[in-house]
Design a protein that fits this description.
This protein is α+β, with helices and mostly antiparallel strands. It is built from 12 helices and 8 strands. The strands form 2 sheets. A 6-stranded mixed sheet has the order 3-7-8-6-5-4. The chain has a two-stranded antiparallel sheet with strand order 1-2.
Length: 431
C-alpha cells in the first residue's frame, strides 16, 4: 500500500498543489474546532487577568488597591496553581486527538506516573498547562488578527454592491462613490483569496507545531523519544571511498571472471560423456559456481542495492513495503536529490526497521515517511504493534544506530510498552 500525499500540513504547504488539495479544508476544520476550545480557556484566563490588569493600572497611577481585589487575586492564583494540572487533562486529550486532523504522525503515548502528586511534579503536566495558557491567550489574538484580514477582504469583494446604495463607502485607504470605482478593489480582493487561504494554512501549521512540541514531549515514565547514542565514526569519507572500491572491484573484476568460469564449466560438461568418471565432479563444480554467482550478487546488492540505483529512495522504499508481511503505507516528499551515502543509509534504515516490525512488533500495519526538513533527510517508521523495543535487547537497533552515526546522523526511538513504536532517523545532507 503506497500513498504519495504529504504526511502532515506543514509538508503539504511546500507543495504546488496545496490550494487544490484536501489540506486547506483540513486546516479549516482544525481552526473552526479550535475556536470554542480557545474561547473557553480565554474566559478562564480573563477571570484572573482582568483584576490583575486593574491592579497593575492602579499601581502605575499611584491609586490605592482595595483589599477585596488583593484577596481575590491571591485566592484565584492559588486555585489556578492547584487546579491547572488537573483541569488540563481533558484539554490535552482532546488536543492530541484533534492534532491528527492536520498532523497524523503518531505522538509518543503519554503514560503519567500514578498518583495525584505526579501531576504536580511531572514536567509533562506543566507543559500541558503552558499549552492551555498559550491556546487561551496567544491563539485567540492570532485568530482575531486573521479574522480582520478576512473581513477586510470581504469588504473589498462587496464594494461594488455596497457602493450601489448611493452612499460613500470606505475601502481600506480611500472612498468610492460608484460601483465602477469599487470594481478594481474587488478584483484585488479576489486575488487575495488564495493568499488568505494559504495564510490560514500557515497559521494552523504553526499552531499544530506548538501543540506537537508541548504535547508530544517525553512521557513521565521516560519511555518516549530518546536518542540511541552511539560513538561517531571519524573516517566517514574514507569508509565511503573504500565501500565504492569494493563494490567496483566485485562488480567489474570478480563477478565477470566468475561468470566466465561458470560458462567454461558448462561447456566442459557438454564435452564430457555422462558415464565418464569426471562427469559428476564436473557437474558439482558447475552448480557450486552458479551458487557462488548468486552469493556474489547478493554481496553486491548488500553494498549498494540495485533497486535503489534504479528507482531512487522513494521507489526502493515502496518496493520494500510491497515485500512486507503486513500493509505498509509509504509517504515520500523528496523535492531535492540526496547524497549517495545518505540515500543508501536511509534505505537500510527502512529495511532494518521493517524487518524488526515483522520479527518483533506483532503489528497489523506500519508507515514509512520520507521527508526533507531543511538540510536533513528525516526517515520515520512507525507501527501499531506491542512496543517495548529496546536497543539493549539486540533487536537490531544498535547496529542501525551505528550505521546512522557513521554519517553523523541520529536515531531516536519511541516505543512504550503496549505501543505504538516510532523510529525516527535524521540524516544530514551535506552538499
Amino acid at each position: 500500500m503506497t500513498v504519495d500525499e504529504p504526511p502532515y500540513l506543514a509538508a503539504a504547504l511546500r507543495r504546488r498543489d496545496y490550494l487544490i488539495s484536501a489540506w486547506p479544508w483540513r486546516a479549516l476544520a482544525y481552526a473552526v474546532t479550535t475556536v470554542p476550545i480557545a474561547g473557553v480557556l480565554t474566559v478562564a484566563l480573563l477571570i484572573v487577568g482582568a483584576p490583575l490588569l486593574a491592579v497593575v493600572g492602579a499601581v502605575r497611577q499611584d491609586r490605592p488597591i482595595g483589599l477585596p481585589i488583593i484577596l481575590f487575586l491571591a485566592v484565584t492564583g492559588i486555585a489556578l496553581v492547584l487546579l491547572a494540572p488537573i483541569v488540563t487533562i481533558p484539554v490535552t486529550m482532546l488536543e492530541r486527538w484533534r492534532l491528527g486532523v492536520v498532523d497524523p504522525r503518531p505522538l509518543p503515548e503519554q503514560r503519567p506516573r500514578s498518583g495525584l502528586s505526579a501531576r504536580y511534579t511531572s514536567a509533562t503536566a506543566w507543559r500541558e498547562v503552558v499549552y492551555a495558557c498559550w491556546l487561551g491567550g496567544v491563539v485567540p489574538i492570532a485568530y482575531w488578527m486573521f479574522s480582520m484580514l478576512v473581513l477586510l477582504d470581504l469588504t473589498l469583494l462587496a464594494g461594488p454592491w455596497l457602493a450601489a446604495d448611493e452612499d460613500r463607502v470606505v475601502l481600506v485607504w480611500t472612498t468610492v462613490d460608484t460601483p465602477g470605482q469599487a470594481i478594481p478593489y474587488a478584483i484585488v480582493g479576489l486575488l487575495l483569496v488564495p493568499v488568505l487561504w494559504y495564510l490560514a494554512g500557515l497559521l494552523v501549521a504553526g499552531q499544530a507545531a506548538v501543540a506537537r512540541r508541548l504535547l508530544g514531549g517525553p512521557p513521565a515514565d521516560g519511555a518516549a523519544l530518546r536518542e540511541v547514542t552511539r560513538s561517531r565514526a571519524r573516517l566517514v569519507d574514507a569508509y565511503e571511498a573504500e565501500r565504492r572500491r569494493i563494490e567496483r572491484d566485485v562488480h567489474d573484476g570478480a563477478q565477470p571472471r566468475l561468470t566466465s568460469l561458470t560458462l567454461q564449466l558448462g561447456l566442459a560438461r557438454l564435452d564430457v560423456p555422462d558415464d565418464s568418471p569426471a562427469a559428476r565432479p564436473l557437474a558439482i563444480a558447475h552448480e557450486q559456481a552458479k551458487d557462488l554467482m548468486v552469493t556474489l550478487r547478493q554481496i553486491v546488492q548488500g553494498i549498494r542495492p540495485q533497486n535503489l540505483t534504479e528507482l531512487g529512495l522513494a521507489g526502493a522504499a515502496r518496493e520494500l513495503a510491497g515485500e512486507a508481511t503486513i500493509p505498509v503505507a509509504v509517504h515520500a516528499d523528496l523535492a531535492r536529490p540526496l547524497p549517495v551515502l545518505v540515500e543508501t543509509t536511509a534505505y537500510f534504515v527502512v529495511s532494518e526497521a521493517l524487518g524488526n516490525v515483522a520479527r518483533h512488533a506483532r503489528a497489523t500495519r506500519a508507515e514509512v515517511r520520507l521527508t526533507q526538513a531543511g538540510r536533513n533527510l528525516v526517515v520515520e517508521v512507525s507501527d501499531d504493534g506491542c512496543g517495548g523495543a529496546n536497543p539493549a535487547r539486540g533487536t537490531g537497533l544498535t547496529g542501525l544506530a551505528d550505521r546512522v552515526a557513521a554519517v553523523d546522523g541520529r536515531l531516536l526511538l519511541a516505543s512504550p510498552a503496549g505501543g505504538p513504536t516510532l523510529v525516527r532517523v535524521e540524516l544530514p545532507c551535506r552538499p
